[in-house]
What does this fold into?
Amino acid sequence: MKKNLKAWLYLLPALLFLGFFMVYPLVDVLVYSFEEGYNSASQTFFGVGLYNYSYVLHDPYFLQAVKNTFILVVITVPVSTGFALLISLGLNSIKKLRELYQTIYFLPYVTNTLAVGLVFMILFKKTPYTDGMVNLLINVFGGKSVDFIDGPYWAKMFVLCFYTVWVVLPFKILILTSALASVKQDYYSAAKVDGTPKWRVFTRITLPMISPMIFYLVITGFIGAFKAYSDAVALFGTNLNVAGMNTIVGYIYDMLYGDSGGYPSYASAAALILFSIVFTITCINLLISKKQVHY
Amino acid sequence: MNGDFEKIERRAALRRRVVRVLTYAMLTVWAVMVLFPFYWMLLSSIKSYSSYNSEYVPKFIAEAPTLQNYVEAFKAVPLARYFTNTLIFTVVTTGIMLVVTVLAAFAFARLDFKGKNVVFAIFLSLMMIPNELVIITNFQTITNLGMRNTYTGLILPSVTSVFYIYLLKENFEQIPDELYKAAKVDGTSDLKYLLKVMVPICRPTIITVVILKVIECWNSYVWPRLITDEQAYFLVSNGIQEIRENGFGRENIPAMMAAVVVISVPLIVLFLVFRKKIMAGVSRGGTKG
It folds into this structure.
């Protein structure tokens, strides 16, 4: 009995924090999402039902946010994973300067997303004073200047995707280089003795051996990209709805707080919709990986 | 016959060289892409306001470097204040998190109690809960408690981390049971054993956890934005956003860049000093993207 008590005492701080800031909110968010016409100020509501969900699903801002998020996910996850694999293979095949490259590639991980996003904005932005670095580069190759920050949709989406890839790449490169380094050299030696062509070595040895890590990156990549928000804020400012570049997470926070805020019920409904999307996709990913991954 | 062999050899050598050149070219191009924004912010931050705005085609070097923008950045916005806030937030959050995590991990790893497996299973399942789902209620809770614009309101919900408890528990379990029994025979108390034996042995993991948490705290943006609207409690991320939206007036980009440099430097220095540890730590327990 005394032993039990002591163990619970050690657990107590964690239980308190988790209970108060995770378990209770989890129940509460469900409750919120079904309370219709909830008023933050008076903390009253007039009914229970699915109205919040239907409001959110019919809100053009939400639909825009869903569209933006899906485009972002579909582009950045494959591009960043593929490019990270390419770079890691390159890193793995060289000896000179390898550590230097690795250090440089990791830098974006330790930088403040908001701060560096500001630099990206300046590089891409077209102002009366200057067309910006990127546009000048485009001009050199004979293209026309585009305002990437306040201009057409595709241009804004391009910057957002580019910045997202720039931000997520360090983690992926790090994971893949260590996965590549841990493949046993014996396999490669055996392949060499047999005179196996390089492409076959890659598809038959390297790829299967690192496939668990690739799937890990794809799964976390999907989850992370669906939760994109601060990258967009860094590039386009806090008023993402006006810029037409809001994300689902951004929509949740806008509903909660700020000029358009004060609607925790709508925010909760949107959060639960996001959660079910992410959950479904993660399950699908896990199912596919069970079939494909070599352990 | 001999000539053919040489020809094949030569062709293979040439191909190897081409592949190598292409590899280095690709790696260098990306390295430049990574470094360029850093270079650009440094460069813009030492150009004077007038010279920055008069360059329609930006110059790649600053002809008359000046530190005026840094002075401006600290004078025009409470940058020093943002810094202190972030420092306090990071240190206190990490400190409390460490205590809570170590105690819980110890209970799971070494102590026997009824319902241990059930509680641990619940903990594990909490790992899958995204922050976005619980932040709504936490926002309401903190607001109702009147803790907006306080350090307490900023820190308390940021303390918990199930994943770090899991990471530490795994590590604690690798320490042989015999050590614990020997300590018990000697009459060492559990707490003393934890602090004198387990924590020192697991120092690498603890350092990993601390580093990850520090990076997370330094870059956190969403929660501080929700919970603070007084500049006196802004963290650096919110400060940067504030500067972007209504700072400095007249679109003073050089001063803005000076602020960005000042905010980016601490973590970059930390990274360059603890490079190996940080990279090993992130590959063990980090996620981003």
